[in-house]
Fold this protein.
Amino acid sequence: MDETMTLLFVFIESTGLLAPIIFIGLHLIRPFFFIPVPVICIIGGILFGSVFGTIYSILGLTMLSIIFYFLYRQVPRLSKKVNALKQKWLGDKVNFTIGQIAILRLIPFINFHLLSLCIMDVTRNFRGYTKASFLTNIPVALLFTVFGQFIREFSTTVILAILLALTLLFYLLREKQVIIKWHEFFKPKTNKSYQ
């Protein structure tokens, strides 16, 4: 994996003005090579700096989300696979808010496209999906571009504190509603006497 990353660095640095386009394209082909989102964002921070690396990562991730939207709608095999993954990991009745999805995107081992499917469930149309995808991609691109190179140097205590803080934020940003089933709401009361 390290050799592949070194080759990517050399290739992108040698392309000059095409480097941002190639970097954004790297975000688009990332899923085929099973490269995690944080790795690409870290590369963007090293190559382009914090500001441009973040901008290019947001563009690449949002374009990837848009491509996923259309592929999900057009390719039944893909939609079946992602739905099975969602069923396995989240079940039927899970509805995340956009804030929760943004936090979940910060956790590297959660599938990016599974979270895109969660955005599709929350939004009503393509425009809403695109806006929500853009907003949920900002934290992951910003965090891993700016701070990603330092995460490896954190102690176990700091990493656990970060994960605990993310869990707390995830809980605080949850959708606050209660679902009561029809038969539970209208359940007949027993042991009443009418005398």
User: Anything to note?
Assistant: The longest helix spans residues 37-74. The chain has one domain: 2-177.
